[in-house]
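Sample pair:
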Amino acid sequence: MQSSQLMSLATILTGFIAASQGYNQEASALLYGGIANQQQQAINFTRENEIEADRIGINLLSNTQYNPAGMVSFFKIMQRQTDNQTFASYQHLLTHPLDQVRIAEAENRIAQLSSKNLHKTQSNDDYFYMHARISALNTDDKTGLLKRTYTSSPRSQYELAQAYEMNQQWQNAEGTYQALAKQNNNMPFILGLGRSYIKQQKYAEASSLLEQYLKVQPDNFALNIYLAQARLYSQQSAVAIKQMNSYLRNTGQPRTAEIYQLLALAYTNTEQHYLAKKTQVEYLYYNGNYHTAIGILQNLIKDKELDATEKQHLQTRLEQIVKTQKDIKALG
């Protein structure tokens, strides 16, 4: 036990002794002081934990070759959204450190990292390909991407493939991705090739390609989404249902609106309308459309043909979504 905690307990104990001797005012002061000190120590401990969590996060980002400077950018966004000046005068009462404190701590920690680690982050292929795709998706001048000069290096060719995709030149994108995949079966190349096949309605080729890689990476979200699309569009809805339910049951990956949207469509295609509606509820929920999800659930519960167990399951889900909706409104 830390000395500060012992001091707090001693203060509280002295307060009880003073009260037993009739020193009521002194006892109150000692008791409240001891309790307040304990609470302050708990708050301090919480802030220290938050700072330590930030430090661990920065180290994890660096060790896994992602740029830790992104954490600083995130804290700066938080700072813009929060009036920290309001809290600055009594920051000792806060359970979380101020954003400017977290920014300073993060910048200092990143400065202490070796330049070697930071160089590894920027030179990592996965990081580069992810950054290239996000940049292409978010650029306003899509046609301008085609006017750039590209070299024969895999990185540059991947950027060229993004340019073709953004301008819907799918045959050119397919050829570029095929050439890249022959050199190295890097997952961004495989996913790009799969997208190109799907956009050209080459569903058999897409399914054949993506199936073999899904066996190796069954929890890969993008692989599951693209393969489900290829199967749905090629009238293999039953196979797509089995695949997506397996993903939801076995991978432990976060649930998303996209997977439920495809699953609901597959159920509709196979005329499993009740399951389609249940799945649509999850799609709406993960898309933030709580009101419509609640309405569908309320209608499903009214079905007199449902057994008691299924009705209770629906009622429980309804209560969960209603609570989430209330929590979100309270935050807003």
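Residues 3-119 form one domain.
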